[in-house]
Write a structure and sequence with these properties.
alpha/beta, ten-stranded mixed β-sheet, elongated, binds iron/sulfur cluster
């Protein structure tokens, strides 16, 4: 029984049905393991008079976040590799923000979406991650690497909506106040545009959770070439699902647009993108393509980025220009899976 898979409510029920105990001990376990990162929960005061319970729990529960096998640093950004219990490896990135860090977590070993600009997509899908393997990345970032993390983005290896149930369960575990305490408004799920996943997320009671969509082209033809998922869920279907998504008051979607020289960086693309976005409330991240060996894609020049960005701004789009962080350690967009 891997403790990193359970919310406090679920753990309370397990202790009630299996051990005749309840919330008091569940909270102690949660505090020691999730909040403090201590695996020695048996020495917590709550277990001082419940030695038999502590001993059986020590035998029956495990905390397996995976082993941090390697770390790479660029400036204050950290990428770490986790070796899972079956030997598979996943990558996570800790990106410094103002006072706290944002952790980018993986949801699958590989990915089957096949986006042409993405190293993970080239790997194909090996398997989905279990809940504890997703929450384990947060455990390791905070407690093994000692990085204060306040935001979590599901933007690492894998398409989160292709592993919907585990991602949803991980969101609920990360959100528990007595544990990891990541607010829903500090979590962002990023999708390549899997419409059924957007619809299922919309039906959950997760007020404030943020949705990011990797757009990368404003027309189905260009987008299908870059992102085969477009053939199943074309842009108009995607837009309809977004227009029905329950955003909080003043909430926005985050769109990511990777600019690739000569592919999707013409002013005509900017015009069509602005048309596609209207009237959705969107903040658009404009990111220069990270060249991936063997793909033949190139970054646009700064000048081309500027022109594209200005054209969008002139059409009323809220644009954030991002200089791709982490390129030298292969931690930028589309580069995970190369280490
Ligand atoms: Fe998968 Fe995301 Fe890469 Fe597309 S960009 S192949 S969805 S990991």
């Amino acid at each position: 029984m891997n403790l990193l898979s359970f919310t406090l409510e679920e753990l309370t029920r397990i202790l009630e049905t299996g051990y005749g105990k309840g919330r008091f001990h569940a909270r102690a376990l949660y505090r020691e393991i999730f909040e403090k990162g201590s695996l020695d929960f048996g020495s917590a005061p709550e277990f001082a008079v419940s030695r038999a319970l502590a001993q059986s729990l020590e035998k029956e529960i495990s905390v397996e976040p995976g082993q941090v096998a390697d770390t790479f640093e660029e400036a204050d950004l950290t990428k770490f590799i986790t070796r899972l219990s079956d030997g598979q490896k996943i990558e996570s990135v800790i990106v410094p923000m103002n006072r706290y860090n944002t952790l980018c977590v993986s949801t699958q070993v590989g990915c089957r979406m096949g986006c042409m600009f993405c190293e993970t997509g080239r790997m194909g899908l090996t398997r989905h991650l279990d809940v504890h393997e997703i929450t384990g990345q947060l455990f390791n970032a905070r407690h093994t690497l000692k990085k204060p993390v306040k935001n979590v983005v599901f933007m690492g290896m894998g398409e989160p909506f292709d592993n919907f149930e585990s991602v949803l369960a991980a969101v609920r575990v990360m959100n528990v106040q007595q544990g990891f305490d990541i607010a829903l408004r500090h979590m962002t799920i990023s999708t390549a545009g899997l419409v059924p996943g957007i619809q299922k997320l919309a039906a959950q009671n997760l007020p404030g959770i943020r949705l990011a969509v990797s757009i990368n082209a404003p027309d189905n033809e260009t987008r299908s070439r870059l992102m085969p998922v477009t053939r199943a869920w074309p842009l108009d279907t995607l837009k309809t699902s977004l227009s029905r998504f329950p955003l909080p008051y003043k909430g926005t979607f985050l769109f990511e647009y990777i600019l690739i020289k000569g592919v999707n960086d013409a002013l005509m693309h900017a015009d069509r993108l602005a048309q596609f976005i209207h009237p959705l409330p969107v903040r658009l991240n404009l990111i220069p393509c990270n060249p991936v060996p063997g793909m033949g894609f190139e970054s646009p020049s700064d000048e081309a980025m500027n022109r594209f960005s200005q054209q969008l701004v002139a059409k009323g789009v809220f644009v954030i220009r991002r200089w791709s962080k982490g390129r030298s350690v292969s931690a930028g967009c589309g580069q995970l899976g190369r280490s």
